[in-house]
Amino acid sequence: MRILVVSTPLGALGSGCGGGVELTATTLVAGLLERGHAVTVLAAGGSVLPPACAAATLWTCTGQSQPSAQHQERSAPITMLADGLLPRFWRRVLLEGPAAGFELVLNLAYDWLPFWLTPTAPLPIFHLVSMGSVGDAMDGVIADVARWDQRRLAFHSAVQAADFNLPQPPVVLGNGFDLAAYGFCAEPEPLLGWAGRVAPEKGLEDAAAAAAQLGLPLAVWGLVEDRAYAAAVEASVPAGTLQWRGFLPTDQLQEQLGRCRALLNTPKWNEAYGNVVVEALACGVPVVAYRRGGPGELVQPGLTGLLVEPDDVGGLVAAVAQVGAIDRRACRQWAQANASREVLAERVEAWVLAGLGL
Length: 358
Ligand code: UDP
Description:
Elements: E1 2-6, H1 20-34, E2 38-44, E3 57-61, H2 85-100, E4 104-107, H3 112-117, E5 125-129, H4 136-149, E6 153-155, H5 158-161, E7 192-195, H6 204-214, E8 218-221, H7 227-235, E9 242-246, H8 250-257, E10 262-265, H9 275-282, E11 287-290, H10 293-298, E12 305-308, H11 313-320, H12 328-338, H13 341-355
Parallel strand pairs: 1-2, 1-4, 2-3, 4-5, 5-6, 7-8, 7-10, 8-9, 10-11, 11-12
Helix pairs in contact: 1-13, 6-11, 9-12
Bound molecules: uridine-5'-diphosphate.
Uridine-5'-diphosphate (UDP) binds next to helix 1, helix 8 and helix 9.
């Protein structure tokens, strides 16, 4: 098939502004190419595709970044910037997509406009929904598409899909990773890890508090989206508890992450999936997570990590004390069996073929 993959209007691929969608986009494109599809990627100017996506065509637009949906009030109206990436992306899809011969458009971004366009667009648009419910307008437009033809929608986890008003059982795809890019590390150091955008919905403060109680350093990888929040978390624990490692490319992230005794994953929202959970497992690092959102579905208690009641810092402390009993090889094996790039590409292909009625 000829497929147009539309990336996030939050920022360039490789910048970190798009959160987990960036890695999902590049992994999925590589997986679809591997299965023989012709793929074009529409992304913000300055985007960099990794070598595994070399056979893809890159279309770029420039413009202002879209404000992130999860940082608005639930009742906020939809915002669209006149010179924004979002309207420019979709004008290009509508104007150039049909002539370029795409059989389908695969939207990876959580924006109202492409959902609203879907029933009237001149070519089939499919959406891999990247977050749970964060606002009324998105809930409404996702429910509208679901009522019109739910085959155009897929989700990362069942608990994420449950946020939406869907007439049919959801298509749940999980996610996929280029597991060859993650090295297995058998022997951890006395170090805990936390990875993700540094923003209130990700709950870094709980992981920091647990690390402080355990007297272990917590390495933090990720883009600091909210500086005031990061400073407040830093001030909430003894100096030296947090090791700020910055936003690293995958090869460096995995090399450092693999040395951790455990990854702490402490979301305050209904996390759709939690890429960093699987990235840690791929390195052999057990995950201690709240039983909330995607991580609550991904972590296999006792096998690949431990689940703790949401917001229970004492529970995190107790669970970290038990991670030594987890076999790090079982973590890696779980990722290989359930979340490889190949598995994701096959699932996506089956979803869109069914949605096209093929
Ligand atoms: N990430 C990264 N470098 C870092 C820290 C994080 O590339 O130093 C990436 C990570 O690989 C993951 C993303 O940031 O793909 C975070 O995605 P996740 O699904 O965990 O959360 P989201 O940001 O989408 O809410």
